[in-house]
Amino acid sequence: MLKLGIIGTNWITQQFVEAAAASKEYELTSVYSRHEESGKAFADKNGGQVYTDLDKFFNDGDFDVVYIASPNSLHFAQTLKAIDAGKQIIVEKPIVSNPDEFAQMKAALAEHPEIHVFEAARHIHEHNFRAIRKQLASMETISGATLTYMKYSSRYDEYLAGKDPNVFTTTFSGGALQDLGVYVVYDAVTWFGKPNRVHYYATPLRTGADGKGVAVLGYDGFDVTLNIGKNTNSYLPSEIYGVKDTIVMDNAAELTSVIYHAADGSTKRISEEPDDNPMIAEAKDFATVINDPKNPDNVRHYQTWLHLSEIVNSVLFDLRRKASIVFPADNK
Questions:
Q1: How far is Cα 66 from Cα 82, in angstroms, rounded to an integer?
Q2: To which H or E segment does residue 138 belong?
Q3: Which residues of the chain fall below pLDDT 50?
Q4: Which of 132, 211, 224, 225 is nearest to 177 (CA)?
Q5: Alpha-carbon dihedral of residues 117, 191, 122, 63, nearest 10 degrees?
Q6: Is 282 within 8 Å of 295 (Cβ atoms)?
Q7: Rounded to whole angstroms, how far apart are CA atoms 118 and 121?
Q8: Contacts of residue 103, Cβ cutoff 8 Å, sequence gap at least 6
Q9: Can you give the residue ranges of the Gfo/Idh/MocA-like oxidoreductase N-terminal domain (predicted)?
Q10: How far apart, in whole angstroms, are the C-alpha atoms of residue 165 and residue 158?
């Protein structure tokens, strides 16, 4: 049983802790929060010793694996601290703010080869994601794709009220692209590879972050369009086009229902009913690698995931540059 420490006590941390418990691979032992009250409330519900000092958390906390779910701009420094502390690391997406931070993180990992850093891109670990990839391999031609993930954030109400929630500020490396956009960029990179060219048409907020936007990823012979947003809802399905055949997803990130429409007009459901908690699959996959790190399959899986993280990070950065979205983290 892996001992788990967490940084952050928001809703996504609660979901991961529940997934970790459901996987039967982790036990929550340590909780870090900047605020004693919120940390105690989380620990009272889920267990664990509470820390409000990050150094004490890493030095005194009894845990093997840390799950980092702090504001985006803090991921990099906290990941480096975790590497130095000898902890296995799961970081909520986006893993870091830019390619320079990613390169520094890789350099730190090279000095600690026993440590793994996993980006919590949960959907790529689910059966339905892999089912799409398998179906793509059988399609003779790929002619393009339209992938949509637009979901109204409750934090946007705060923004409209004149506040600046972390997720909607450049200060904390926020915005629609860095949040929901990560899912569809992961889709495109995993299914089609790194694009040759990118464009991002962002709708800016007063903070300089993007509330929504349309990205176009260019490949040899086709384009992939990404529709993303945190200040509105979309109920459009997502599609991958062959010539006469098409894969239709109810949602490019949730992947609850996936239908293959064949060239002859027939249809086939290629999805399974997902877990109630969508983070269970990733929790199991990460535990498998951590528990048996020298297994050749586990080594290969980890290297694949880290490489995907690096490409996604690069594509997100290139998209931001196209829209002139700059984070303070870019200028360090």
A1: 8
A2: helix 127-138
A3: none
A4: 211
A5: -20
A6: no
A7: 9
A8: none
A9: 3-114
A10: 7
CATH topology for 2-114+280-310? Rossmann fold (3.40.50)
Q: What is the reported pLDDT for 331?
A: 87
Query: Which amino acid type is present at position 263?
Result: A
What sign has the CA pseudo-torsion 304, 318, 249, 260? negative
CA distance 75 to 70: 7
- CA-CA distance, 225 to 147, in Å (whole number)? 6
Omega into 204 within 30° of 0, i.e. cis? no
Phi, psi of 185 (to 5 degrees): -65, -40
225 CB-contact burial (10 Å; exposed 0-12 / middle 13-18 / buried 19+):
middle
DSSP 253-286: TT---EEEE-TTS-EEE---PPPSSTTHHHHHHH
**Residue length of the chain:** 332
Q: Are 245 and 262 in contact (CB under 8 A)?
A: yes
Rounded Cα distance between 327 and 325, Å, is: 7
**8 A C-beta contact, residue 251 and residue 149:** yes
DSSP labels, 36-105: HHHHHHHHHHH--EEESSHHHHHHH---SEEEE-S-GGGHHHHHHHHHHTT-EEEEESS-SSSHHHHHHH
Judged on CB neighbours under 10 Å (0-12, 13-18, 19+), 204 is middle
Q: What local confidence, expressed as pLDDT, does residue 68 receive?
A: 98
Q: Kindly report the CATH number that applies to the domain delimited by 125-278+312-331.
A: 3.30.360.10
CA distance 234 to 68: 29
Residue 109 phi, psi (nearest 5): -65, -35
Tokens (6 digits) for 231: 């200040």
Edge-to-edge strands, sheet with 2-7: 49-51, 26-32, 2-7, 65-68, 88-92, 117-120
Residue 158: the pLDDT is 96
Can you tell me which residue has the tokens 């229902």? 257
Domain ranges of the chain: 2-114+280-310, 125-278+312-331
